[in-house]
Structures are given as structure tokens and as C-alpha cells.
Amino acid sequence: MNKQRTYIINVAVVLVGLIFIFRLFQIQVLDDKYVNIAEKISLRRQTVYPQRGLIFDRNDKLIVYNDPVYDLMIAVPIRLKGIDTTAFCALLQIDRSEFDKMLERAKTNSYRGKSVFKRNVSNLLYARLQERLYEFSGFFFEIRQDRNYKYNSAAHVLGYLGEINKSELDKQEEEYYEQGDFNGKKGVERFYEKELRGVKGEQYLYVDKFGVIKGSYKEGKLDQDAIDGNNLHLSIDIDLQLYGEQLLDNKMGSVVAIEPSTGQILALISSPFYNPAKFNIQNRGKYYTMAISDPTKPIFNRAVSAPYPPGSTFKPLMALVGLQDEAINKQTHFGCPGFYRLGRRIIKCHPHAFNTGLQLSIASSCNTFYCNTFKNMMQLDKYENSEESYNAWRSYLKSFGVGDKLGIDVSSEVSGWLKDAAYYDKIYGNGSWKYSNIISLSFGQGELGLTPVQIANIAAAIANRGFYYTPHVVRKIENMEYIPEKYLVKNHTKISPSHFDAVVQGMQEVTLSGTASHLVIPGIAIAGKTGTVQNPHGKNHSAYMAFAPVIQPKIAIAVVVEEAGYGSSWAAPIAHLMIEKYLMPDSVSKSSKVDLERKMMESDLIPLKYKSQRNEALYGK
Fold it and tell me: Once rounded to an integer, what is the mean pLDDT over residues 335-340?
């Protein structure tokens, strides 16, 4: 009996032993779940950030490149046993209380087994710390890419980078970003974020319990290389951009120049501008507060975000609508005694010949001609009422991109103002309004607001005699065989090509015998239109749109200078100098335009009410 009991006990012991051996084998060899748990304690997944795509101008001049940004990280859970905090603080040039605050902040803001201890460490401090980092267990560096700039120019086109915020993290579709990553915030940096950012890589490293790196995990077999972002080639001519910024310096306003045959933007300027280098990751904290407190709004992109009444620059478009809708024809003349009378209301006009035809109405900027044209259209028999005729007028404008976002590839574009009929129903009563209530629209005032890029686009559409390409600043994306398709599609207006020549002749007369005749450029035929825009908040705005040459145009341009007075005094000279610079690069310095150029560059038209609050540090190097 005892032998049997002993046997049973021995068998049980052997079975239990075999079970333990099998389970150990299963845990250690067959089931790697426990291996992974153990290894996670001693593994660090480190992000390898790609090089962000470079940005070039249309002539392949480098504009934007990358600079490394060093973030001093700390491994989580945080174990700092045995480090010399006095020496560490001395290296960072901080005191112990600041060290404790930074450490406490790191403990409460960890992610993926790491936390930021100090962002944007300088190159000098990075080099100094790298030599001795082995002494401070748990600390390591992550290297990311910030932007730097070859030119103090084009800040509103380029935009800038910033740390991704919680809202952007929550809305992302691909789960590409994590806390602490950078992304584009404005300009093309934002619009072409996916193309520029590249693909992050990963590196797996063995670390000990103090966070000290002990080697590569599995000899790097699980590591993934980062894929650099695509380089972006813009349509901007950086030399023309810089020249336009010199002309617009110390003024508030905008310039947009477009190549009509492609829709490519040659220059896009909003002034006051700021030095883009002041808004990179390392500097923006200091300068952003200055910028938002500056009353001239240097961050605000007037070129795409500021709707202005177009004033008399609208008249060529009004003439085209009148011709298309048969409210006038090429032989139509109206008598102009120097004003247009509307009951007790008098709308003043400029001095010119009494008998005014189409070409003269554009060349001399006759308000009377366009009030009559608008009245005729609103009273055409084919329309049952004012609402129907207004909707027809409005549809012609929308075919030129007025009243809608054009879809430019620079962030913050607005649609401007082009009210629908319901707006006037609310003001005057349903069906109780007529042309006399909205007559100011006929000469570009009233409830009408166009951004400078929309005005330039109208000039491009007239230059093309009836179509335009959506304005855009991208010319090529490296490693991609396309740019967005919408920038390659012709947008046709509702105006027949047969009507454009008469209007273009009138615009050419503006520069030959009309309001901009003092700005003739020998050898370049320019079609233009000046505008003096009523401004209820101060002096009138100076405006101008033009294209050149008249045959096979290569540049269309719009200029607005706020509170500067007549269009012929400031906006038109800036536009003509830029046209000459683009089409005949060396001619300005050899012509009579030298004095004009100097006047434009040296004149300060910033209203006095803003002067004392401007932050000059934003603009220089």
C-alpha cells in the first residue's frame, strides 16, 4: 500500500514538474506576449522626423529650407536617481526651482513613454549637452525640422509652422500626428501640408531603467526610415515679389500679379508684411504678441482676405455686362454734364467731354455712363421685375469669380461681398426696390466688396477675352505628376468674346490719354483702369487693375493702397513699375521712372493714427 502511495506521489510530482516545464516553454518560446511586456519596459520607440519639402520660386530659386529643432525629452516613468542636478542646471543655465517646475510639468504632460522637458534648445546648448548627456540618465533629444528663409519676403504666401493643437489632433483622419508635432498654419505651408510633411520613421532602442540607451532593438529590423516631403515649386517670381514689397513698404494695401495664360500668381503681397524668419518655431513666441497688437495687422493677408469696394476698377466689367445683356452697344453714347441726377441725389463725375461713348467712359472714368447702363439693364423688358434683372446682373459677375472664393491655394481666402436679392428685400421690402436704390453698384461702390486677388482675376479674364484659370501659387510638386486639377481647367465667363475688344480699347486709352496717361511705358502696351475707392473710415483708397501687353498678355495686376487717395497717384504707378520690372527687368533703372520708383519706395502712407503703435521689430532682419 505504501509502495502504491509512493508511486502515485512520484507520478504526481513528475506531472506537476512537466506542467511547469511546459508552461515555462510556452511563455518563453511559444507565446511572445510576455516577452513583449517585458521588453516594453526596456524599449523606447523614438520618432524619426522627415525633412520637410523645400520651397522654390518659379525660377527654381530656393526660398524656404529646414533647420533642426532640438527638444530635450525625458523618459517616462521619470527616474532621476543619481544625477547631478546642480551640474545639469548649470548646463541649462536655470536654477533649481525652475528645474523642479519643468520636471513637474513634464510629469503631467507625458505621451508614448516620453515627455518634453525643454523645447527648442539652441544649437549651442544642444552641442554642449550632447557631450555630457550620458551623465544624466533619462534625458535624450528628439530632432524636428523648423523653417528658415533665404529672403525676407513673401511671408503671407509661405505661411509658417506651429505645434499641432488638440482640435487638429482630434479631427485628423490618418492619425499621422501626435502631441508635439508641427504642421502648417498659414499660406502654402498649410494648403500643401500633406505634400510637404513627408512620412515619419521609427527607431526602437533598448534602454535601461534610467532611460539610458543600450543599443538598437533586434539590430534595427523593426526600424522604419523617414520619407522626406516633396519639394514645392511656386509660381511666385521672388525678384518681382521683393520689388513689389519695396514699392509697397510703409503702406497698407496689397498687390496681386497673375500670368493670364495659366492663372499662376507671379506676386502676392500684403502690406504691412513681416519677416518670415520672425515667425519660425524658435522666434514666434516673442514676435506673435507684437504682431497681433500691431494696429496695421501685419499677419492679416489683405490680398485674399480683405474685400474692398472696387470703385472705378469695376467699370470695365460693368461695360462688358451691359454689352452682353444689350443694355448698351458699342455705339451707345450718354450725355454727361459732370454729374448724374437721381431725384434729389447728385452723383458727381470727372471732367471730360459731354458726349461720352464706351471707350471714353473707361478712359475718363465716367460715373454717368455706368449709372445709365445699370438703369437700362434693370429696366429691360425681358425682365419682369428688379429682382430678376438684378439676379441676371449678379450671375454675370459670379462668372468672373466675384462673390465666391476663387479657390486659391493660400489659406484664409474670403468670398467678398455680392449680396443676393433677399438682402435688398430685407432692407426695402419684398419687391419694393429698384435700380435707384442700388445705383452705387454700377460704379463699384455700395454693397460690393472684392479682394485684390479677385480684382486681378477680373483683369486676367479680360486679358484672355473671356476666360480665366483659377489663380494659384503652385507650379510643380516634385515626385508628383500633377498639381490640383482645378488649376488646369479653363473657367469661361458669361460674356461673349466679341465684346472684349471694345472694352480693352477703352482700357488702353486709360494709359494713352486717360487717368493713367502720365505713366506710359515705351514699348509696352498696357490696358488698365484706375479707381478711387470711397472709404467711410478715412481717406479714399487708391486702386488700379491692368494687364500687359495688350496682345498676348503676360501679366495681369491689381493694386490697392489704403487711404492713399487717387488711383492714378499711387496704385497705378506701383502697378506700372511692376509690369516694367517683369517684362523689361533692366529698363526701370535706365528710364525716367527712376524718380517715380524712388518716390514709391520712400513714401510713408501709414495713417498717423497707427504710427505710435507699430512694432518695427517685426519687419526687419
Answer: 93
Fold (topology level) of 46-234:
Penicillin-binding protein 2a (Domain 2) (3.90.1310)
- The band of 114, judged by pLDDT with boundaries at 50, 70 and 90, is confident
pLDDT > 60? residue 62: yes
For residue 193, what pLDDT is reported? Answer: 95
Would you say 356 and 364 are in contact if contact means Cβ atoms under 8 Å apart?
yes
Q: Which three cell numbers stand for residue 411?
A: 489659406
In the chain, what are the helix, strand and coil shares in percent, each to the nearest 5? 40, 20, 40
Report the pLDDT value the prediction gives residue 32, as an integer from 0 to 100. Answer: 52
- For residue 399, how many C-alpha atoms fall within 13 Å in the half-sphere facing its CB? 19
The answer to whether 541 and 560 have CB atoms below 8 angstroms apart is: yes
Nearest Cα residue to 176 out of 22, 50, 351: 50
Residues of the chain with CATH 3.90.1310.10: 46-234
Q: How far apart are CA 526 and CA 282, in angstroms?
A: 45
Ranking 6-20, 24-38, 196-210, 433-447 by mean pLDDT, the lowest is 24-38
Name the residue among 247, 303, 315, 265 with its Cα closest to residue 571. 247
Provide the CB-side half-sphere exposure for 296 (13 A, CA). 30
The pLDDT tens digits for 241-271 are: 999 999 999 999 999 999 999 999 999 999 9
Does residue 569 or residue 145 have the better pLDDT?
569
The domain over range 238-618 is classified in CATH as 3.10.450.50: no
Count the alpha carbons within 13 Å of 105 in the hemisphere toward its beta carbon: 11
For the chain, the distance separating the N- and C-terminal CA atoms, rounded to the nearest angstrom, is 101
Cα 258 to Cα 255: distance, rounded to the nearest angstrom: 10
Cell of 446: 455700395
What residues does CATH 3.40.710.10 cover in the chain?
Answer: 238-618
| Inter-residue contact 276 to 154 (CB < 8 Å) | yes
